[in-house]
Hints:
Elements: H1 2-74, E1 82-83, H2 85-93, E2 97-103, E3 109-112, H3 131-139, E4 144-145, E5 149-151, E6 156-166, E7 172-181, E8 199-205, E9 211-215, H4 221-224, H5 231-245, H6 249-255, E10 259-265, E11 268-277, E12 282-289, H7 290-338, H8 348-361, E13 365-372, H9 375-382, H10 384-402, E14 407-410, E15 415-420, H11 425-444, E16 454-461, H12 468-485, E17 489-491, H13 496-514, E18 519-528, E19 533-544, E20 548-550, H14 552-562, H15 565-581, E21 592-596, H16 599-602, H17 607-617, E22 625-630, H18 638-650, E23 654-660, H19 667-672, E24 677-680, H20 682-686, H21 692-707, E25 711-714, H22 720-729, E26 733-735, H23 745-756
Parallel strand pairs: 1-3, 16-17, 19-21, 21-22, 22-23, 23-24, 24-25
Antiparallel strand pairs: 2-3, 2-7, 4-6, 5-6, 6-7, 8-9, 8-12, 10-11, 11-12, 13-15, 13-16, 14-15, 18-19, 18-26, 19-20
Helix pairs in contact: 1-7, 9-10, 10-11, 13-14, 17-18
Amino acid sequence: MTLLKRNIWTLFWLVYGGGLLLLIVLVSSSWNTTVDRYERHHESRVEFFAQSVASILGTQELVLDVIGRELLRWKRFPMEPQALPLLDSAMESSPSLAGLGLARPNGQLIALSSNINMARLPNLLESEQTRPSFELALTEHKMVLGRTYRFEPLDEWIIPVRKALRDDDGEVLAVMTAGIRIDGEHGIFSSDRTDDDDETLMLFRERDGYLQFLSRNGVGPEVYSTVRRPDEQIRADTERLERESGKSIEAIKRDADTVVYYSERDSGNYLGAAVYDARFELWIVSESGMSGVLREFLKQLAIYLGLFAVVSALLYYLFSLIDRVEKKRRDQLFHQSRHDDLTGLMNRVGLIDEIHARIDARRPFCIALVDIDNFRGINDRFGQDFGDQVLADWSRCLRQAAGEDAVVASLGGDEFAVVTGLSDEQQIYEYCQSLLSETSNCVLSGSLNMQIGASIGAAIFPANGDSFSSIVRSAHLALHKAKRNRNDVCLFQSDIETRYLRRVHIEQRLRGALEPHLITMAYQAQVDAQGRVVGMEALARWYDDELGYVPPNEFVSVAEASGLMVQLGNYVLDRSLEDFSTLPRQKAFPLELSVNISVLQFMQPGFAESVLEKLYQNHMTPNELTLEITETMFMSRQSKILPVLNQLRDSGIRLSMDDFGTGYSSLSLLRSLPIDELKVDKTFVDSINEDKQARKMVESIVAIARNHELDLVAEGVENKEQADTLVTIGCQRFQGFYFARPVPIEEVRELLTASVE
């Protein structure tokens, strides 16, 4: 079964791993596709822009040739600068031209379009911005581009173009010059601009490295016209282009190849493409930041991851569903192999596994074997079918009485086993007694309405056996002894001396624990229905270096048997009063101290006077003290104890009857005793929401307290449901783990100090 489950999830992880591998492949392919698309985009863009540049500049060169030849036919040039209608006509046919002019070889402009301010004409050879391109035009037969600059007579940014006019002998007669408009709706590159802020088109001059043109929002010619690539950047760009293309820079220029490149600069990483225009000596460049590539890739990645997450979730749900179905089937088979068909309880095989597991974990536990008395007679009288009904009903009641933490098994026939984590003999004995009584009462009140008795034999691991066979054998021996008496409980006792020595050891250690205050005090709060702390009960705790933690019922019983009870009781009373006297108290919310008093203490001469003296020494008033007594202490000594109780009550000390309802409670007893308070025993509170009889008992106790004008405290309240039920019934004072656990006096003092402040 485990192998099948492991195979199912192994298959899931294989499918998941395959999907993850496919995701990695898709993501890698998406990245490559995105990058490749951007590379193709920049290649196409730069090629288109290069064609546009070549076409525009070629057209302007043709205009200069035509106008220049027309002017040469005049064979005479003006002596002074003047506007020529011919130039104005040429400008009308070419809106991208900002102005036209004709200059002598000495740089003087002599013929101009009419839109040029002649009062501000520069000499083209004398101006720092125009001299390099004008001198070059005198030596070249092709059109020459000048640096982008602001032409003052036009008050406009232009790209200057110049072409020499020569005679038949090649002598320069004049230089035709024009300014190409950059900005505005007639700007020559306006149609090539992009709306994407991340993309840039650039024209770099090969001759001097200056930026001729830049299409970037917010960056005008006044900025980029001054930008010049340093020599080291030119070398780095050259090496990059050669590396990316695998060709020399001369071959790239010669063949006009478009080269894709990647660049790392201070402003970031870039992807672009470049092509060289040899005629006009320009590098045409298109580039964009890698952030755009990354953004587009992340969009695709988000889609892939979303799909992967959805598919993975569906696969996980499918495999989980398969696993749950298989687990349910396995659990059913496992349950059938380890449970009895008739009773539904664990069978012998399941019990063996359970006990072996507890033995391997080395956890103490108790096994109680339960055998129905004279079950053969039931079968003989009523028949096998009725006997099966009895077994089914008995097993149901036994399961209910055993509690949630216990394991109940059917060993065949009328024999059952109960395994519980209890390891204390007294607790086990009381637990087994309650099993008998609760199970018998349950069967009696059930549909069969039959009185059935049983016997129980119990053994403790590892005290009565450290293996499966030995612990079960010990329990069987105890059961055999119990069945001799019928309806009895017997605990296996392999060594009586061991228990006796422990009691002696406890007595010796107890005698030495009282004087040095090794027994400590803990205090459990009592609260009212509004949650206010109205009192606290003093509880003794003992942790011995040799014995470890000793439960109160154990060392109290030793103290009673060894004559230490009076000394122990006085010790507890003294410590409690001393601790209580140090607590901050408010007059608006008086606080009471409850202390348990044994019958032996009441029998001591001058007990009442001693208690009053202790109250005086600790600056306490009598009404702050409540003495708790049990019902059983009055049965044999009532005549001796009653005067002491009256004396204590007359002095103002309150008296509380502890564990009310578990002993010999009677209305006559309440009428004769000077009692102020009743404490509902924890056994009733534990089952108040499950056992109708327990609830009715509590309701009766509440009615008794109300009719006799007695206060009522419910002990052992461990959850909200119990508290709510008690409030509904009419209880107004509570004590238990739900409200507070027993804590040292320091924690009580901190709590009360905080509430006072």
